[in-house]
Design a protein that fits this description.
The structure holds 2 protein chains of 2 kinds. Chain A is mainly beta. Chain A has no helices and 11 strands. The chains are: A mainly beta, B mainly beta.
C-alpha cells in the first residue's frame, strides 16, 4: 500500500544498546524527516534529508545518526541509547518545499 | 528561525460549541502555514493549509486564514463534535530551508457530549 510506514511500533531496550528505527515511504518524496514527541516539548526535529545521500541536523540531533542511501528509506539509529531518548518518534516525508508533510504512525521507544 | 505560540490546553467544549485555537508565529520570509491534528495513538494528519497572505484553508468544517499583518493563523470551527477531540498543532514551514516545519506545543481539545 502507498504511504509511509514505521517499524517497529513499540520497542523496549536498555541503556547503552544500539537501536535502529525504520521508516519507508512509497511516494518517492524528496524530503524525509525524523521528529521526537515528548510531553511539554511538542514535536522537535532530529534530522532531515532533502534527497538520497543528503542529510542535515535539526533541533536535537545529539545521540542520533541517520542515513539515506535510497530515496524511500530513512533509518534513525541511536548508537548508545540513554533514558532521555525515551520518546515517541515520528517519521515524515514531503514532495517539495511548501508541500505538506505526511507522517507515519510513530514508534514508541522506551529505554530502561 | 521560526517560532510558534499556541494557546495552551486543554480546551474543553460541549458538543456544537464554537472553537477557536489561537496560533501566532514568527518567521523569515513568507512561510506556508499548516494545521495538523493528532488523534490518540496516531501520527499527525494534515488538517488544512494556506500558502500566501489572506488565503483561507478549510477542511472538515475547520477554517484558518493566513494573516500576514498579525502573523497569525487561528483555527476555527463553528460546531465541534465529540469526534474532533484530539491535539491540534500549528506549524509554519521554512520554504528556504529544507521544507522544515516548526511545530507549536499543541493544543488538546476535549469535546463533551
Amino acid at each position: 500500500d502507498a504511504g509511509i510506514t514505521q517499524s517497529p511500533r513499540y520497542k523496549i531496550t536498555e541503556t547503552g544498546r544500539q537501536v535502529t528505527l525504520m521508516c519507508h515511504q512509497t511516494w518517492s518524496h524528496s524530503y524525509m524527516f525524523w521528529y521526537r514527541q515528548d510531553l511539554g516539548h511538542g514535536l522537535r526535529l532530529i534530522y532531515y534529508s532533502a534527497a538520497a545521500d543528503i542529510t542535515d541536523k535539526g533541533e536535537v540531533p545529539d545521540g542520533y545518526v541517520v542515513s539515506r542511501s535510497k530515496t524511500e528509506n530513512f533509518p534513525l539509529t541511536l548508537e548508545s541509547a540513554t533514558r532521555s531518548q525515551t520518546s515517541v518518534y515520528f517519521c515524515a516525508s514531503s514532495a517539495a518545499g511548501g508541500q505538506p508533510q505526511h507522517f507515519g504512525d510513530g514508534t514508541r521507544l522506551s529505554i530502561l | 528561525g521560526n517560532s510558534v505560540t499556541q494557546m495552551e490546553g486543554p480546551v474543553t467544549l460541549s458538543e456544537e460549541a464554537f472553537l477557536t485555537i489561537n496560533c501566532t508565529y514568527t518567521a523569515t520570509g513568507y512561510p506556508s502555514l499548516f494545521w495538523y491534528v493528532q488523534y490518540p495513538g496516531e501520527g499527525l494528519q494534515l488538517l488544512l493549509k494556506a500558502t500566501k497572505a489572506d488565503d483561507k484553508g478549510s477542511n472538515k468544517g475547520f477554517e484558518a486564514t493566513y494573516r500576514k499583518e498579525t502573523t497569525s493563523f487561528h483555527l476555527e470551527k463553528g460546531s465541534v463534535q465529540v469526534s474532533d477531540s484530539a491535539v491540534y498543532f500549528c506549524a509554519p514551514s521554512h520554504n528556504n530551508a529544507g521544507n522544515m516545519l516548526t511545530f507549536g506545543g499543541g493544543t488538546r481539545l476535549m469535546v463533551k457530549p
